[in-house]
Amino acid sequence: MDRTAADPTTLGHRIRHYRGERSLTLDALGAEVGVAGSQLSLIENGKREPRLSLLQAIATTLGVELTDLLSGDPPNSRAALEIELSRAQRSPLYAALGLPTVKATRGTPTETLEAIIGLHRELSRRANQAVATPEEARRANNELREQMRAQNNYIPEIEELAEERVRASGHSVGALSHREVSVMAEQLGFSLIYVSDLPHSARSVTDLANGRIYLPPASIPGGHGLRSMALQAMAHRLLGHERPDSYAEFLRQRLEINYFAASCLMPREAAVGFLQQAKRDRVLSVEDFRDAFGVTHEAAALRLTNLATSHLDMTLHFLRVGDDGALYKGYENDGLPLPTDVTGAIEGQLVCRQWSARSAFTHTNRTTELYQYTDTPAGTFWCASQTGTTSAGGFSITVGVPFTQAKWFRGRETTVRAVSRCPDESCCRRPGPELESRWAGQAWPSARLHAHILSPLPSGSFPGVDDSEVYAFLESHSAT
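Structure (tokenized):
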């Protein structure tokens, strides 16, 4: 709260406090300053803001400086409780309950105020744990995506921090090693501990009291997973993150720690040098970028979106699409029209069947990238897509650029070409006339229910994390 100037509620309490010290009634003070006592009552209750001339007259009569009345601090601890109660009862959270307000009078015991305010604080805490409705979360995610698009998906201050920490670890060339990640942790006062009993709701747990970062024992090939998780845990400390007070803040923190981890695994100076040379040689490739730094295909593709516009003078797009055609991650600053819902959110929207992000699933050889030109209403784009599989199903990773930028990439010679008319439904969402006339009214499919659509947003101080499980885990390991 801004302590430099009083809001009407605090101002009213300060006037009442000094009036009480002078043993003046409302009518007596009103007679001195030329207003009715009832008008002063409205001012003291924060329901009316006085003119500056009236405030000066009140201050003179009460024998205090005007700045004393305008201070943003409550005059005493009792007044602080009354002000907090007043604000809590004016909040949308309390108003939604439809309950009457409780007026704090001189005869209200301080213990009663403390109990009521304690209930308000707990009500607010529980509401903040739920954080957001699905609609609010999608809106927050969309706003964050638009912010990153406006800055070309580039965060220079995190780039600088990552360069500094990687350099301090002794790293010079090649992929960042597990040992160098451990050194980075030690320099922050942490040791990396690999355990098999991590809470199921947490990818890693940081023990601030004992300086430990707990990680799972398993890793994907190449060790990218464990290195990335350790770097993300360190990022919270390096970036000064506090407990998120909203879902938007939670998403922002998650983006920042992922960005920091990627900036360490693919440091800007080395990554930009590699990409610039590949561009000069006209052999830009996500596959080569991935292999040079020992990361996953998706991580390399996302890192390319961080650096391409700021350092390669190139716009582009990135897509992660499930084998059901749904878009799970997306970024573009090259004009590719991503599918959106009415709120502008892209997550879960079906991409065009003609895009390589979907046609890649129809190819039998999925070990290498699929290259394709696609004519769209927004222009022609060149794309490189590669598929993969997780326990949740198949997915494709796509990086693409406008036609004029394709000349810098390996695979530009492809003759594969498709035409997409989406969002025109006749492109791929509406059945052809013959099929429609043959089967309309004759089919009754049983739809597969996507359970996540009905699930509430994860709750907890850190959304989706079971606090009880985490604390029990830390307690069991604290003695080791």
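Residues 110-130 form the longest helix (21 residues). Residues 451-457 have pLDDT under 50 and may be disordered.
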